[in-house]
Design a protein that fits this description.
Number of domains: 2
Helix content: over 70%
Structural class: mainly alpha
Number of strands: 0
Mean pLDDT: 83
Length: about 525
């Protein structure tokens, strides 16, 4: 599992770093004005459904069923099931996309009520969403092929596919936008649509190499597909609760000028550790648990969950502390240029610190949901997700009208912690979550190392204050020193305190020999 996480995590890190470059370029050309707000709403619209249907509900339902077919009936039966799912999901998403494109003038005011006072901005948001919305169809199919590959323990192609989205954005901004300077929103929206197609083609090719070249049969509601849909229905909310929370925040944020953009840039930054750690471990953990439970290896499944909790918190705690204690230098160096001024950096940093309070919770949700999904239980996480969504809505409204857009980020953090506590309690009651001695011993040591690192970052940021006010090159150097020093202090202490052992690192990066075609491959 650690080898697989090293593969997923490293490729996700590359994607997120390119994503930062993408957002730096977007910030420079769009800033935080009305075009930026319209594009971010347009981008979030298909992204919401992508994370609900693709990364959320579909992945949670499909992977355990596909893994069960692999373990019980073999590859031929599993492939037939994947083809049935491919046909039904393609037909359903084509219809859904057509309906949404037609209904966008009525849907957009619901998603962005603050745009209603500016007909020009509302019309632009509708146009950009229509251009980018087919991205959803491609991403659901990408999720299907990713699930097939992950269940075969082939993680590289699926983890690498998001890199294409960032490359398309970077290429559009640097190569295409100079020729269409009066249409920046349209150029970025077309980048989203074409990137989706590129990701799908990559996964189709990877599945073919793995011996899973899927045909497109006539869509039929077979017993297996009915089971898939029954599991997906509650999973739409349970696996995507955080995305629903973000959508609620976006709707409320449109009531304050610039707030959508501040929250977007802050969201992008804390999504780096969330994507590398939480989503990465969740991707690996779900097929790992599904196949072990189907094979009757309950003890091994529990051990895998403990290791997932251990390593996710080992990596999440320092990221959380860093984003809490030095958010402004990070935001300023990454985004403060062109149309993104010092005031925008200050406000975005405040939102980032508020989001960071919930970073461990965002990651833990990704780790604690797979034990339910692997047992084909999507109803229990649904109930807890609904509770967290209601809490987020009430808190967002209360805090927004008290402290502004920062309250939206705080509400997201608090509601995520509520979700974590409910998931953990129910898993413990059912005997599916028991912290072993290794986790109980190492977790406090990781926390101590993170706290000491935070103190070092505070002192060092004060020492480097003049550099952060200097030219671009010196500011980048100062941030690099801050990051390297913080990471060095944390991991040095982690090894000294034995929160992590050398064997853990070597195991994660030790290569496994390739086996026969279609079997496990090196990770």
């Amino acid at each position: 599992m650690l080898r697989a996480f090293a593969t997923v995590g490293s490729l996700t890190a590359i994607s997120r770093i390119l994503g930062f470059l993408r957002d730096i370029l977007i910030a420079a050309v769009l800033g935080t004005g009305p075009v930026a707000d319209a594009f971010f709403v347009a981008f979030r619209f298909p992204n919401l459904f992508r994370r609900l249907f693709a990364e959320g509900a579909f992945n949670a339902a499909f992977v355990p069923l596909f893994a069960a077919r692999l373990e019980q009936d073999g590859r031929i039966a599993a492939k037939a099931f994947a083809e049935e799912a491919l046909a039904v999901m393609t037909a359903a998403l084509l219809l859904f996309t057509a309906v949404c494109l037609f209904a966008m003038p009525w849907l957009m005011p619901l998603v962005a009520p603050g745009f209603a006072d500016d007909p020009k901005q509302l019309a632009l948001a509708i146009e950009l969403t229509r251009i980018s919305f087919p991205y959803l169809l491609a991403m659901v199919l990408v999720a299907l092929f990713s699930g097939v590959l992950n269940a075969l323990y082939r993680y590289a192609a699926a983890a690498a596919s998001p890199i294409l989205l960032n490359l398309f954005f970077i290429g559009a901004i640097t190569l295409v936008l100079p020729h269409f300077r009066d249409q920046p929103g349209e150029v970025l929206a077309w980048s989203v649509a074409t990137a989706g197609l590129g990701q799908l083609l990559l996964l189709v090719w990877a599945a073919k190499r793995a011996g899973m070249e899927l045909r497109m049969p006539r869509p039929r509601l077979t017993p297996g597909i009915r089971r898939l849909l029954r599991l997906m229905l509650p999973g739409v909310l349970s696996a995507g609760a955080m995305q629903i929370n973000l959508l609620v925040g976006t709707m409320i944020a449109t009531l304050q000028a610039g707030a959508v953009s501040y929250l977007y840039y802050a969201d992008r930054l804390y999504q780096l550790p969330l994507g590398i750690i939480g989503i990465g471990i969740g991707i690996v953990l779900l097929p790992e648990l599904s196949r072990k439970l189907r094979a009757g290896l309950d003890g091994a499944a529990l051990a895998s969950l403990n290791r997932a909790l251990e390593f996710s918190l080992l990596l999440t705690l320092p990221a959380t502390v860093a984003l809490l204690v030095v958010p402004y230098p990070i935001i300023s160096v990454l985004f403060e240029r062109g149309a993104f001024d010092a005031e925008a950096a200050r406000l975005t940093a405040a939102a980032l610190a508020a989001f960071a309070l919930g970073l461990p919770a965002y990651v833990l949700v990704k780790v604690l949901q797979p034990p339910f999904f692997a047992r084909q239980d999507t109803v229990t996480p649904l109930r807890f997700a609904l509770i967290s969504v209601v809490a987020n809505l009430l808190l967002s409204l209360l805090l927004f009208f008290t402290i502004g857009f920062i309250g939206i980020a705080l509400a997201t953090a608090v509601s995520s912690w509520l979700n974590v506590s409910l998931l953990a309690q129910r898993l413990h009651q059912r005997g599916f979550l028991k912290l072993d001695s290794r986790l109980r011993r190492r977790l406090p040591r990781s926390l101590l190392a993170a706290v000491v690192m935070g103190a070092v970052l505070l002192i060092l940021s004060t020492v480097l204050a003049d550099l952060f006010e200097a030219g671009a090159l010196l500011r980048i150097l100062a941030l690099a020193l801050l990051v390297l020093a913080g990471g060095g202090v944390y991991f040095l202490l982690a090894f000294i305190l034995r929160a992590v052992e050398r064997e853990d690192v070597s195991a994660a990066f030790r290569r496994r020999p390739r086996t026969a075609r279609g079997g496990e491959e090196s990770a």
